[in-house]
Design brief:
Elements: H1 10-15, E1 23-26, E2 30-34, E3 42-48, H2 64-80, E4 88-91, E5 107-111
Antiparallel strand pairs: 1-2, 2-3, 3-5, 4-5
The protein binds guanosine-5'-monophosphate (5GP).
The site of guanosine-5'-monophosphate (5GP) has 14 residues, from strand 2.
Length: 119
Amino acid sequence: MTNEYDPQNVFAKILRDELPSTRIYEDDEFVAFHDIEPIAPVHVLLIPRFAMLRGPAEVSGADVDWIGRMMVIATRLAAGLGLEESGYRLVLNNGSDAGQAVPHLHVHIIGGAPLGPMA
Ligand code: 5GP
């Protein structure tokens, strides 16, 4: 990742409605939409609207409250998507070894089938 937030990254464009997305949830702080290349029957991305953070490594103490709300929303979305009983995976990638492709902090909500080992 470079050292500065790139306002041209695809999620920033989705937030500005410059790119289409299939949104399943939005509020003042967050937007959730289906991943364009799902790796499981359910694959949703949850992103903050306002936090220009490239990844979870940039979170600081000032972010504790909204990060908490984001995680609660992720679990509620998973339940709403029918994943509560079967289980699901929440993933935050950071940087190149994690394969992070989009430099805007996001949570993957993945489920709907056995996901296998992490790697
Ligand atoms: P990362 O690898 O950065 O953690 O995950 C980025 C995710 O964004 C990938 O799963 C990828 O399929 C998804 N993605 C990339 N571009 C788009 C797009 O334009 N629209 C949507 N809905 N998802 C995208």
